[in-house]
Design brief:
This protein is α/β, with parallel strands linked by helices. It is built from 7 helices and 5 strands; from the N terminus they run βααβαβαβαβαα. A 5-stranded parallel β-sheet has the order 2-1-3-4-5, sandwiched between helices.
């Protein structure tokens, strides 16, 4: 599995490496969807992009989040399955780009059967203890956050195994 993430993923990269089987993790602070697209395309060109592609981006959602997300969907080559992890920010309201991105992502599997949602936004909101004493986005150093984040990815992987790969 190829995991492409932002600072949230970066903070738990070591744990993910140990608890998400066969994962290749590329995470960087302040990464936006357009930068995740570049990483995905580089891996695709070098034939290192794995069958399952997990995009853990959204905390830093830009105004063109929809266009950038659609580029990922359309330019992902056939044979892959895409897992989109919804972002979480305890301070964000419905007008924030990260919240709008999560709404968009949750609708995509209806149209694109090779997409599975890892609903971090929903699950994280149910576990405020993971963010106690943090900025409401990053849980780095809180083991319960590491465990929960990895579980959301692993659960989505399990669900994605039941879906078809992209065909065209």
């Amino acid at each position: 599995m190829s995991i492409i993430g932002d600072s949230v993923t970066l903070g738990t990269r070591s744990y993910l490496g140990d608890h998400v089987a066969n994962s290749n993790i590329d995470a960087e602070g302040d990464r936006t969807m357009n930068l995740a697209y570049k990483v995905m395309m580089n891996q695709q060109r070098s034939h290192t992009l794995r069958e399952y592609v997990v995009i853990c981006i959204g905390t830093n959602a830009l105004d063109d989040y929809e266009e950038q997300t659609m580029k990922i969907i359309h330019d992902l080559e056939p044979g892959h399955k895409l897992i989109l992890m919804t972002p979480y920010n305890a301070r964000a309201d419905a007008n924030w780009n990260s919240s709008k991105l999560a709404v968009l992502e949750r609708k995509l599997p209806e149209k694109y059967h090779f997409i599975t949602i890892a609903d971090w936004g929903k699950i994280a909101a149910q576990h405020p203890e993971v963010f106690k004493g943090t900025d409401g986005v990053h849980f780095g150093g809180i083991r319960a956050g590491d465990i929960l984040y990895a579980k959301v990815i692993n659960d989505a992987l399990h669900a994605a195994k039941q879906t078809p790969a992209k065909t065209s």
